[in-house]
Amino acid sequence: MLRFMPVGDSMTIGSAGEHTWRYRLWRHLCATYGGPFTLVGPRETLYDKVAEAPTSYAYADPDFPRAHLAGWGEGWQHMVPLIGDAVRAHRADVLLVSLGLIDLGFYTNAEQTAANVESFVAAARAADPRIRMVILPVTPNIRAASDEAFAAQVDRFNMLLGKAVADLDQPRSPLLLASPPESYDIDTDTYDGTHPNASGEHRIAGAFAEAMWQGWGVGQPYEAGTD
Question: Which CATH superfamily is domain 2-216 in?
Answer without folding.
Answer: SGNH hydrolase (3.40.50.1110)
